[in-house]
């Protein structure tokens, strides 16, 4: 995909996640604050509905900042993030919280599972926090274990899982509320190559199966190879955006 595709109206603006001229300057506005160069210096990006996109770049290039702005965790200093036609940067904090709970799912480098809860309850928790009954939430969570190769691991606590199993539980948790977009920041950063490939296979298969888009920040070309597209970031700017045949 070339940069010109950003001007091409052929997507689905109602279903894509669209970033327009995103600027992020940390510390701006603080009295006497000496702000350095912007962490994002004007990023345009389209994450098409149902597609997966890898965000690559050296440490400090702005990958995590971009992910957090796209996901409504950080409010950009400038520009827009349009989700289903609405600018999430202009939503109230309450609206953005609901959005992050219902429309977006998250996978972090270290699963961030709650150590005292069995796997199934870790997966069911986002639904329960949103008002779904325990029995319904648990039933929905249970459906995700087999497709992730986790049958029989429902009652294990995170400390009783391998790193790859824990990341698959984290994938289940990210998908349990049927999000439109899953955001993953270095989801395989703590795993060996074989386990990393298994986690990416599950992540890309399950998001594709549910129709969710996927944004993966990674250092690893092997991880990026699982995605439909790759964006390369340098100093807060997109320097390359290419499409590829995902595995
Ligand atoms: N909370 C923060 N406050 C101030 N500067 C930050 C903060 N987070 C990141 N930065 C700076 O923004 C730039 C991009 O960081 P980041 O998005 O974390 O890059 P990456 O994920 O590619 O390593 C870096 O220069 C970093 O030091
Ligand atoms: Mg980062």
Q: Shape, please?
A: globular
Q: What is the number of E strands? A: 10
Q: What string, H for helix and E for strand, traces the elements in order?
A: EEEHEEHEHHHEHEHEE
Rounded mean pLDDT score: 90
Number of helices: 7
Strand content: 15-25%
Biggest sheet architecture: 6 strands, mixed
For the largest beta sheet, what order do the strands appear in spatially?
6-7-8-3-9-10
- The class by helix and strand makeup works out as alpha/beta
| First-residue to last-residue Cα separation | 17 Å
- Which cofactor or ligand species appear? adenosine-5'-diphosphate, magnesium ion
List low-confidence stretches. 1-9
Fraction of residues in helices? 25-40%
Radius of gyration: 18 Å
Give an account of the 3D structure.
Helix 3 crosses helix 4 and helix 5 (163-175) packs parallel to helix 6 (193-210). A 6-stranded mixed sheet has the order 6-7-8-3-9-10, sandwiched between helices. A 4-stranded antiparallel sheet has the order 2-1-4-5. It is globular and about 50 Å long. It is an alpha/beta fold and 247 residues long. The chain has 7 helices and 10 strands. Helix 6 (193-210) links the parallel strand 7 (181-185) and strand 8.
